[in-house]
Design goal:
Elements (H helix, E strand, L loop, with lengths): L1 H34 L18 E7 L5 H10 L8 E7 L5 H14 L4 E4 L7 H10 L6 E4 L10 H11 L3 E10 L6 H24 L10 E4 H6 L10 H11 L3 E12 L5 H28 L5 H12 L2 H18 L6 H24 L6 H17 L1 H13 L26 H17 L3 H27 L2 H4 L1
Parallel strand pairs: 1-2, 1-4, 2-3, 5-7
Antiparallel strand pairs: 4-6, 5-6
Subcellular location: Endomembrane system
Pfam families: Glyco_tranf_2_3
Main location: membrane
Length: 481
């Protein structure tokens, strides 16, 4: 029995050390963003005669009214029409396809070079749609936009100019903006998290010369880099991260334009956000499994870059490790097992880093919005991200076990009118786990509630928001309206 308890303690310490290293990775990126000098990206100024042919791909799936909005923005791009191709890659299974057909027909009558591609079989999902579109074009540059975003008119002038001026770049990624940032506290929290990703993490990686993950939209690719990297592959749920790292391994570099902002819409419900985060988490872990061996075999990359890439694509495994540590820590919280001094030290260091690192990371991304608003957004981000622990851990575990699932797009706001999600899948698990953990702590070790408050609050909060959304959707339409 003593040997088993010792083994659990060792594994718990190992898990806490892994979590501490993940926090240190955030600290390193934050410090790099703060102290590393800015890195300018040269942009060539092209005359109309010098502007190359560009393909704009719009991968769509059941996007409804967003279709006309994105097409309006794309057709307003400041680029010669005779050198602009637009592909509407619509794999929709609802009435959205009819909207695409009408919109494309109307644009063709106006002389726009636009094509609609519809696949009955969604092989490889978004990656398959993008690959199918590339087979029908020879344009040397490819821009990609999801339906949620509205590219500014100068997008192509600036991004194409960057790739022309820097022939070693495979692609350039721009920064996401947020059309509905102030719609709710949830959207404000998401905006804060994404601003941290683009304004701190992406900017730090750019300044350090590290590979930048392509974010799936609002970027411009060099066609030659896509082909040399092996093309789009649908064997992970984050085909964008996969291709961008394979391009880097093939010798290409990546660019970041943090001053070019493309506004988009944020998920408006906790369920939609959880779906999105689950897909991203599982996809990152799939890329970790797929790409870690070639990264470490690469002779192009120094060891420190290999380590940083490993933390980049393996960071979501922290959710799996976190659940494991929580389960192993329950006997210690209950007093059934007494840990040694080493466990206490490691637990204390991990807890401090676990709070300090994300607070530093999230604070640096903020705008001048006042201390109170900033504090609410940061605290909300910490709490609600903790509430994704179970869902994201399941995503990571499924990836580790090789369990394949289809690409589930992030539900849009309009889906709330018709979506029907079973109650047991709408937050009951998180809500039950949060309340059970609270009950356990109050019975066995009341002081532990202080340490578990963020996790308990996150699970209960995410669970309650999903349950409320599910109940609202279950009501008759006459009552909802």
């Amino acid at each position: 029995m003593l040997a088993a308890e010792t083994s659990v303690e060792y594994y718990l310490i190992l898990g806490l050390v892994i979590l501490a290293l993940c926090s240190l990775n955030l600290v390193a990126l934050t410090l790099a963003r703060r102290f590393m000098p800015g890195r300018p990206l040269s942009v060539a100024k092209l005359t109309d005669a010098e502007r190359p042919r560009v393909l704009v791909q719009l991968p769509l799936f059941n996007e409804g009214e967003l279709i006309e909005r994105i097409l309006e923005a794309v057709t307003a791009l400041d680029w010669p029409r005779d050198r602009l191709e637009i592909q509407v890659l619509d794999d929709s299974t609802d009435g959205s396809l009819a909207v695409s057909r009408r919109a494309v027909a109307a644009l063709k009558q106006q002389g726009v070079n636009v094509e609609l591609l519809h696949r009955v079989q969604r092989t490889d999902f978004k990656a398959g749609a993008l690959a199918a579109g590339l087979e029908r074009s020879e344009a040397p540059f490819v821009a990609i936009f999801d339906a949620d975003f509205i590219p500014p008119p100068d997008f192509l002038r600036r991004t194409v100019g960057a790739l022309v001026a820097n022939p070693e770049l495979a692609y350039v990624q721009t920064r996401w903006g947020h059309l509905n940032r102030d719609e709710s506290l949830l959207t404000r929290i998401q905006a804060r998290l994404l601003d941290s990703h683009f304004g701190v993490e992406q900017e730090a990686r750019w300044r350090l010369g590290l590979p930048l993950p392509f974010n799936g939209t609002c970027g411009l690719w060099r066609r030659a880099a896509i082909d040399e990297a092996g093309g789009w592959d649908g064997d992970t749920l984050t085909e964008d991260l996969d291709l961008s790292l394979r391009a880097n391994l093939a010798g290409w570099r990546s660019g970041f334009m943090g001053d070019l902002v493309v506004p988009g819409s944020l998920p408006t419900s906790a369920h939609a956000w959880r779906v999105q985060q689950f897909r991203w988490t599982k996809g990152f872990v799939q890329c970790f499994i797929k790409l870690t061996p070639p990264v470490w075999r690469s002779r192009r990359l120094p060891v420190w870059k290999k380590l940083m890439i490993g933390f980049q694509i393996g960071q979501p495994l922290a959710f799996v490790v976190g659940v494991a540590c929580l389960i192993m820590g329950l006997p210690f919280m209950a007093g059934a097992v007494v840990g040694g001094a080493g466990l206490s030290v490691v637990a204390s260091v991990t807890s401090v880093l676990g709070f300090a690192a994300p607070i530093m990371f999230l604070t640096m991304a903020g705008r001048n919005e006042g201390i109170r608003r900033t504090a609410i957004e940061i605290l909300g981000a910490l709490v609600l991200t903790s509430g994704l622990l179970l869902s994201n851990a399941r995503g990571g575990l499924e990836a580790l076990l090789g369990h394949r699932t289809e690409f589930v797009r992030t539900p849009k706001a309009r889906d709330r009118k018709t979506a029907r999600t079973p109650l047991w899948r709408s937050g009951v698990l998180e809500l039950g786990a949060g309340l059970a953990l609270l009950t356990f702590a109050l019975i066995e070790q009341p002081v532990a509630v202080l340490y578990l408050a963020m996790l308990i609050g996150g699970l209960v909060g995410i669970g309650a928001m999903q349950v409320i959304d599910g109940l609202a959707l279950a009501r008759p339409a006459s009552i909802r309206n």
